[in-house]
């Protein structure tokens, strides 16, 4: 077992309803012996620290990050992001504007999770690397991993890596909704309804699922923040127990059961490892 000495949580400023202090408090309680620090957003803080003078941004760093982000964008679900993808100038501009404005709550762009993690890794403090250090970056953008077997991208809620990424949009979009929801949507499509009416019908299908402005988001994110910590401690990704917060939910109902189901936070095995 690798002891975890430090956990760094980087918040996402564009998710006002998420209480990152509460998430950090939870991780602190569940990781005894580790120093848990809550920090501002990784990308935006790097840009801010790079300020050449008060009020004057370091355009070099901002432009560099904007270019790297645009290169990590997934443009088609059925083809992997090519190495050295050349983004359009408009796409780089878009990233630059988004980095500079944390007030905008845009979400839904899909990035290749490994390429995004590579960008984040460059911004970590070299004195804070090594197996005892766990970095967790929250984002409201979508992250996906390329699957060689079925030749398409899959959206993910979490990437376990260095650093790990937790996608708040991914928690909403990646685990599937109930089969009835997809049936209702397909029926609406078969009826040839206008897009607006289709959306209305889909929304009216009221299965219980996490929404972008869901008040349960903080509670659900606590478990996702613990997944990289448990992975580093045990070497095992996820848990087989559906009531454990480390369960790898493929369905919304599984996510809600594991994260907001009440009762114990972790299964007996993980309670013994965490929360000592
Ligand atoms: Zn467990």
Strand percent estimate: 5-15%
Fraction of residues in helix = 40-55%
Helix-strand pattern: EHEHHHEHEEEEEHHHHHH
Terminal CA distance reads 14 Å
Helix-strand category: alpha/beta
Can you give the mean pLDDT?
89
CA gyration radius, whole angstroms: 19 Å
The unique ligands bound to this protein are: zinc ion
Judging from the principal axes of the Cα atoms, what is the shape?
A: globular
Strand order in the sheet with the most strands: 2-1-4-8-7
Count of β-strands:
8
**Major beta-sheet overview:** 5 strands, mixed
Helix count equals 11
Question: Which spans of ≥5 residues are poorly predicted at pLDDT below 50?
Answer: none
Describe the structure in your own words.
A hairpin with a 4-residue loop joins β7 and β8 (164-167). It is built from 11 helices and 8 strands. It has a 5-stranded mixed beta sheet with strand order 2-1-4-8-7, with helices on both faces. Strands 3-5-6 form a 3-stranded mixed beta sheet. The mean pLDDT is 89. Helix content is 42%, strand content 13%. It is of the alpha/beta class. Zinc ion binds next to α11.
Summarize the structure.
It is built from 11 helices and 8 strands. The protein has 276 residues and is an alpha/beta fold.
What's the SSE blueprint?
Blueprint: E1 6-10, H1 20-30, E2 35-39, H2 42-49, H3 59-71, H4 89-100, E3 110-112, H5 113-122, E4 133-139, E5 142-147, E6 152-156, E7 158-159, E8 164-167, H6 168-173, H7 179-190, H8 195-204, H9 217-234, H10 252-260, H11 268-273
Parallel strand pairs: 1-2, 1-4, 3-5, 4-8
Antiparallel strand pairs: 5-6, 7-8
Helix pairs in contact: 1-9, 3-4, 7-8, 9-10
Bound molecules: zinc ion (ZN).
The site of zinc ion has 8 residues, from α11.
């Amino acid at each position: 077992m690798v002891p975890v000495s430090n956990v760094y949580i980087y918040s996402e400023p564009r998710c006002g309803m998420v209480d990152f202090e509460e998430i950090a408090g939870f991780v602190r309680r569940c990781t005894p012996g580790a120093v848990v620090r809550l920090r501002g957003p990784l990308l935006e803080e790097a840009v801010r620290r790079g300020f050449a003078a008060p009020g004057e941004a370091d355009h070099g760093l901002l432009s560099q990050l904007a270019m790297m982000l645009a290169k990590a964008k997934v443009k088609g679900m059925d083809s992997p992001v090519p190495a050295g993808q050349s983004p359009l100038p408009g796409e780089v501009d878009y990233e630059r504007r988004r980095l500079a404005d944390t007030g905008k709550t845009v979400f839904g762009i899909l990035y290749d999770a490994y390429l995004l993690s590579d960008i984040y890794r460059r911004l970590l403090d070299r004195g804070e690397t090594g197996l005892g250090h766990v970095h967790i970056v929250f984002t409201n953008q979508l992250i996906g991993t390329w699957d060689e077997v079925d030749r398409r991208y899959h959206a993910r809620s979490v990437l376990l890596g260095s650093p790990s990424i937790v996608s708040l949009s991914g928690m909403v979009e990646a685990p599937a909704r109930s089969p009835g929801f997809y049936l209702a949507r397909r029926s609406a499509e078969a009826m040839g309804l206008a897009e607006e009416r289709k959306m209305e019908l889909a929304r009216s299908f009221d299965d219980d699922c996490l929404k972008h402005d869901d008040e349960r988001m903080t509670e659900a994110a606590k478990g996702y923040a613990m997944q990289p910590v448990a992975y580093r401690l045990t070497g095992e990704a996820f848990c087989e127990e559906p009531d454990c917060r480390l369960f790898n939910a493929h369905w919304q109902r599984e996510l809600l059961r594991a994260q907001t189901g009440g009762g114990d936070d972790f299964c007996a095995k993980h309670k013994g490892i965490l929360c000592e």
